[in-house]
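Hi R.,

Here's the chain you asked about this morning:
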Amino acid sequence: MPHIKITNILRPRHPFLDAPPAQHLPHPQPQEKHALTSSPASRKLAHARHDYVHPSLIYDPHQMACFIRESCGYILNAYIPPAADPTFLDWLTHTLARVRPELNAILLGLSFYEHMMSSSGMRAHRCAAADSLLAVALLVADKVLRDNPVADRCWAEVAGLLVEVLEQLERAWCAEVGWRVQPWAWAGRLEVWMREWREWVREEQEACVHF
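And the predicted structure, written out as tokens:
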């Protein structure tokens, strides 16, 4: 698949100038607990070997891109015009296929993304845009859950973004939530996203059967 860069399409000159007010968007908060502590279960999840992947955790990159676009429509519709939808889906499919983050990392990243896009501080960052914040949300989640996470430079190359942009947004995001980026801090939203993903897949499968 050719290298895809859509930053200029998704990032207008003032990307958040006409965005919905932050208070009108859900603002899930991480649970109050020290960032450097973790439960045995979360440590096991974060450091588990991934030689075997349960079938329920396997996803198709294009399907996942469609799920993200639909499920985050209440966030993304303000920034991605209908004409840019195919380009956005191509970019996201390409990124997921190349980096291949785990399903749990994607769902954790979506939990981050909700918070980012409802945070006036993150949205006001000079590097913030719908695509760059999504890439950073997935990048941080991948670092939390993968034994050997993909380097920032690789993420930047695949996503068509400057590595400096990703690094600045990553630091800003971690500071925003007090470094509470472990799964236990977002357990409630993770459960919701997992239910939504499974329901979406079920509906897609039923639609194929009835087609």
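The domain at 60-210 is CATH 1.10.472 (Cyclin A; domain 1).

Let me know if you need anything else.
M.
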